[in-house]
Amino acid sequence: TDIRLFTVRPIKDLRTRLYWCDSRFHLEPLAEMLKPTNIYGLVTIDHSEATIATLVGKRYEIMGTFTSGYSGKSRAGGQSAARFQRLREEAEQDFYKRISEKCNMVFLPYGEKFAGLIVGGPGMTKQFFLDKDLLDHRVKKNVLGVIDTSYTDEGGIRELVQKSEALLKDTDIMKERAVVNAFFTELAKGGLAAYGEKQVMEALGRGQVAKLLVSEAIEWVVFHMANENTGEILDVVDKDGKFDQNSKPGFELVEEMDFLDYMTEKAAQKSTELVVVSKESEEGEQFYTGFGGIGAMLRYRI
Fold it and tell me: Which among 255, 264, 261 is positioned nearest to 4, based on CA atoms?
């Protein structure tokens, strides 16, 4: 008989008590926890293109890209200036209408969870877009700010998030950026910070770590191996997927788990706060590529 025990740690306190004998697992209370509490809309626009995205927690998702189809300055030969201007205005109006319809379609279904819209882009096009009053009033009233960005593609969305720190101060991605930047600052001045698997694990074992930072991009696997004679547990971290259980004679596999779950357990044992760092922000990407994705804010130095 293959018996497996799974422990699920809800991301929030589970306040629902349910005792139900049934033929299926009732996961609705857990599924409800995964729904975003707030969602932000992001739009970058200039005279030639626009990008629409949503920001939920630490992640933004591109929901649509548009091109205007009209020229900013030039005009076709043989056309009168008045005719060209009329065609240009019609194309511009259609461009704004398509963007507005997409915004309404994406943002309105979130209802009260739609926390606000931020519009960015170079020049004045972003303001012209808002002045057209084509957005649904429920979206329009939630415009948080208009910000200058250099780009209007996905790079512009990233730039918009980075420049909206004050407007998005309560979002997960801004809280994450603040933690990672504090880590970088401590590290730069030789303060209460450490990085690298060996140094962090040693500090964690001593109870020295106040805040443990782990990148979600790390895809290592941890094997718990038990000595068949003494019962001693040996943890093996497999970083490249090449670990062979037979390479540990006298040891039996007890459990296999993701590295992030392993670090979650280690942090809980030492009453250490765990911060899972995404790669969605520039700081998160730098933390993973430059520091291996493992860092710590220390309580003290020895």
Answer: 255
**One-letter amino acid for residue 259 of the chain:** F
For residue 64, pLDDT beyond 70: yes
C-alpha dihedral sign at 9, 10, 15, 18: negative
Closest CA to 297 of 184, 189, 173, 177: 184
- Position 146 pLDDT exceeds 90: yes
Q: Within 10 Å of residue 85's Cβ, how many Cβ atoms? A: 12
Structure confidence by residue, pLDDT tens digits, 7-41 = 777 766 666 666 777 788 878 777 777 766 789 99
**Nearest CA-CA partner of 192 in 268, 95, 264, 300:** 300
Q: Could you write out the DSSP letters of every residue in 16-57?
A: -------SS---HHHHHHTS-S-EEEEEEE-SSEEEEEEEET
Number of H helices, E strands in the chain: 9, 12
Nearest to 204 by CA among 261, 266, 259: 266
CB–CB of 34/11 below 8 Å?
A: yes
DSSP 230: T
